[in-house]
Design goal:
Keywords: ATP-binding, Nucleotide-binding, Transport. This is Dipeptide/oligopeptide/nickel ABC transporter ATP-binding protein. Belongs to the ABC transporter superfamily. With about 350 residues, the protein is an alpha/beta fold. The protein is about 25% helix and about 20% strand. It contains ten helices and twelve strands. The strands form two sheets. It has an eight-stranded mixed beta sheet with strand order 6-7-8-3-9-10-12-11, with helices on both faces. Adenosine-5'-triphosphate binds near residues 52, 54, 56 and 215.
């Protein structure tokens, strides 16, 4: 059975909001991530999607322990690492790596590519057989770069090549998990597929688990075996990739999917364009009950009163869960009519 390599339980990050004069004090909190559960299995590709500001990057940084959680627990290979000290974390840190959206910002412009890639080995005292230089050259080749460019500087490379350098650096410590935070968002569309294909190959050949963070369901579609959809600090739906794309159960997932021109390339199940009413509410004061209700065309009174929990509905596929009081029935393949604004729906008390 595949190992559950990285588990988050009730993971929460609230950033304090300071105000007042002359003495600044805590007046509230940005509820960036609010009690999410996630399980990443060894060697799998797990997609985390949602609009800008919904807490994806914060989740990635919590999973890699770059941020300290406000509450909740993180287990890596059966070990609770939530409050592990720097020293205790050192071996884990090397096994859980992160790659970032902006490859240029994350590479030291004054270091050669060879030094950038061999740096993590040096810091962690790793001496591979054949030496660090040989290993760094090998890694450059693995990610599709010319090892002869070992002595060049980041500015001499294109955006896609820089992202490859970042990936080679992440591979230097033989990670078991890589959290990739919007790794292709800053790249030209023509280059995006090449980098996604590279990550897919690395997953297959090296057995690395990937948490792939993206705001674009189309990108995640081609890479992820399982997908979780985030909205305002919560996971609203999670399941096997095909269930999410063919049988979305949460209205928010429907809306996100409808923004993908052709999610499957085969005329897909959700074709209507859903334009959500209003803006994403502030994570400082999220709506009561279901956080999505203020933009949801299906919202009823109960949605303001009771927070829906991620739950498996009868008949849904294994592990396909949705946090909605009124999820789509599992058999629905096609959203035929969509009321865009609750105020336009005469049958909805939320529109009164
Ligand atoms: N250090 C911080 N201090 C205060 N608020 C923060 C901090 N980091 C993130 N936030 C807030 O937390 C919320 C979630 O941010 P996060 O970057 O995790 O979202 P995201 O889904 O990754 O969005 P994006 O794709 O734009 O990066 C946002 O409202 C953001 O402004």
């Amino acid at each position: 059975m595949t190992e559950d390599i990285l588990i988050a339980e009730g993971l929460t990050k609230h950033f304090p909001v300071l105000g007042g004069f002359p003495f600044r004090r805590r007046v509230g909190a940005v509820q960036a991530v609010d009690g999410i559960d996630l399980t990443v299995r060894a060697g799998e590709s797990f997609g985390l999607v949602g609009e800008s500001g919904c807490g994806k990057s914060t989740t990635g940084r919590l999973l890699t322990r770059l941020l300290e959680p406000t509450a909740g627990r993180i287990h890596y290979r059966g070990r609770d690492i939530t409050h592990a000290t720097r020293k205790e974390l050192a071996p884990v840190r090397s096994e859980i790596q992160m790659i970032f959206q902006d490859p240029y910002a994350s590479l030291n412009p004054r270091q050669t590519v060879g030094r950038i890639v061999s740096g993590p080995m040096e810091i962690n005292g790793i001496d591979p057989p054949g030496g660090r230089t040989a290993r760094a050259r090998e890694l450059l080749e693995t990610v599709g770069l010319n090892p002869e460019h070992y002595n060049r500087f980041p500015h001499e490379f294109s955006g896609g090549q820089r992202q490859r350098i970042g990936i080679a650096r992440a591979l230097a410590l033989d990670p078991k998990v890589i959290v990739a935070d919007e790794p292709v968002s800053a790249l030209d569309v023509s280059i995006q597929a090449q980098v996604v294909n590279l990550l897919a190959r690395l997953r297959r050949e090296l057995g690395i688990a990937f948490v792939f963070i993206a705001h674009d369901l189309a990108v995640v579609r081609h890479f992820s075996q399982r997908v979780a959809v985030m909205y305002l600090g919560k996971i609203v739906e999670e399941g096997p990739r095909d269930d999410i794309y063919h049988r979305p159960r949460h209205p928010y997932t429907h809306a996100l999917l409808s923004a993908v021109p052709d999610p499957d390339g085969d005329g897909g199940p959700v074709r209507e364009r859903i334009r959500l009413a209003g803006d994403v509410p502030s994570p400082v004061q999220p709506p009561s009950g279901c956080r999505f209700r203020t933009r949801c065309w299906k919202a009823r009174d109960v949605c303001a009163e009771v927070e829906p929990v991620l739950a498996r509905a009868d008949g849904s596929g294994p592990g396909h869960v949705s946090a909605c009081h009124f999820p789509e029935p599992p058999t629905v393949e096609r959203a035929t009519e969509v009321i865009l604004d609750p105020a336009l729906d005469p049958s909805s008390p939320a529109g009164d």
